[in-house]
Q: What sequence folds into this?
């Protein structure tokens, strides 16, 4: 009887493991190349008069990340100063900003909406301006691959790498 019980436990464990693995695969497949964690490498502005690249608004040292999971994006900013706190990370939350939002994506557009903070308190989308999100929440997807993404809006270009 104990052998049968052990076999049943082992079988159940294998089934749970298989379902977990398959659910993770489905999780990433829902968003294709868009799914996963993206690090902002460079955020540039464009001169309206000439269309040429103008100034750099942010770089990877600004610690801006977009993390895409299912139908949510997590927007996080971890400034470089958080790494220089002397190794004491007990209160590291004081050094970063994190928000969540739903998104709708087509092959050429990305729309952000329903923004909340880490306490699930609704926020105006303008709170995401410091991480590169336009006030109307609408990006054009200029490039998307497994390793790189370029988003554009109203005189801004954001370059990301898969992190």
A:
């Amino acid at each position: 009887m104990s052998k049968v019980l052990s076999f049943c436990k082992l079988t159940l464990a294998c089934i749970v493991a298989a379902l977990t693995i398959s659910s993770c695969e489905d999780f990433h497949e829902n968003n294709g190349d868009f799914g996963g964690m993206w690090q902002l490498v460079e955020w540039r502005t464009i001169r309206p008069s000439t269309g040429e690249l103008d100034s750099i608004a942010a770089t990877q040292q600004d610690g801006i990340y977009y993390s895409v999971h299912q139908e949510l994006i997590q927007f996080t900013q971890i400034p470089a100063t958080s790494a220089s706190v002397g190794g004491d990370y007990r209160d590291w939350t004081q050094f970063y900003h994190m928000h969540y939002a739903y998104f709708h994506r087509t092959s050429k557009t990305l729309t952000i909406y329903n923004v909340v903070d880490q306490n699930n308190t609704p926020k105006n989308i303008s709170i995401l301006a410091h991480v590169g999100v336009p006030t109307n929440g609408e990006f054009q997807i200029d490039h998307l691959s497994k390793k790189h993404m370029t988003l554009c809006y109203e005189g801004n270009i954001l370059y990301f790498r898969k992190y």
Observations:
- The chain is about 15% helix and 45% strand.
